[in-house]
Q: What sequence folds into this?
């Protein structure tokens, strides 16, 4: 791929927009499905849980969240208008039934009251957090007591091998995330390491190592 094409991929991964953004989002959901499903599983969703997802992409996986237990309610927050609109389109029955809400936010402040959510998840977004410590503090704020947040990300070493990863990406490993999280009074932090074979954004089959960090308030 040309340098211009690689830069375009990096830009769309950070904030998808337009037709090319929708196509990238579709490929992202396909390649990230294993990560998404394992992150959902780590939350151990229960009846009547209020769930928040940060950076949901096209949210085609919402069905998987809602089927985990009865009467789950879901809120998705995005910085991308294209992803908000596409998610509402693909999940219109859940929106109509008041099972889900999709909203825009600034990527930093979570626009909900303290102690609002039982569970929070975010997959492959942490690379683009402008204020990671601030956002983790916001996650802590809106979680209920004993609430759980699971954040999934590909390993630093793996990300360094990808040709489209540039200065827009802040790379992480488990220790780097734990160092941030230790500044916030989470009751526990659990590290879950995974590996899977996936098709990369540039079309190659690769072994992806990734981590789910599970925070409990």
A:
């Amino acid at each position: 791929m040309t340098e211009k094409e690689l830069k375009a991929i990096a830009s769309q991964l950070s904030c998808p927009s337009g037709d090319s953004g929708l196509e990238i989002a579709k490929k992202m959901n396909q390649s990230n499905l294993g990560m998404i499903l394992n992150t959902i599983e780590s939350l151990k969703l229960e009846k009547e849980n209020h769930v928040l997802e940060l950076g949901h992409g096209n949210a085609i996986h919402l069905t998987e969240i809602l089927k985990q237990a009865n009467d789950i309610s879901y809120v998705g927050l995005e910085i991308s208008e294209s992803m908000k609109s596409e998610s509402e389109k693909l999940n219109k029955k859940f929106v109509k039934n008041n099972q889900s809400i999709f909203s825009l936010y600034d990527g930093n402040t979570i626009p909900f009251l303290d102690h609002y959510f039982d569970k929070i998840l975010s997959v492959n977004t942490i690379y683009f957090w402008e204020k990671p410590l601030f956002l983790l503090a916001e996650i802590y704020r809106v979680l209920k007591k004993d609430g759980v947040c699971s954040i999934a990300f590909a390993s630093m070493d793996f990300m360094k091998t990808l040709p489209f990863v540039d200065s827009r990406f802040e790379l992480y490993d488990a220790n780097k995330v734990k160092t941030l999280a230790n500044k916030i009074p989470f009751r526990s932090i659990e590290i879950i390491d995974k590996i899977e074979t996936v098709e990369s954004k540039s079309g190659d089959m690769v072994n992806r190592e990734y981590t789910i960090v599970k925070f409990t308030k």
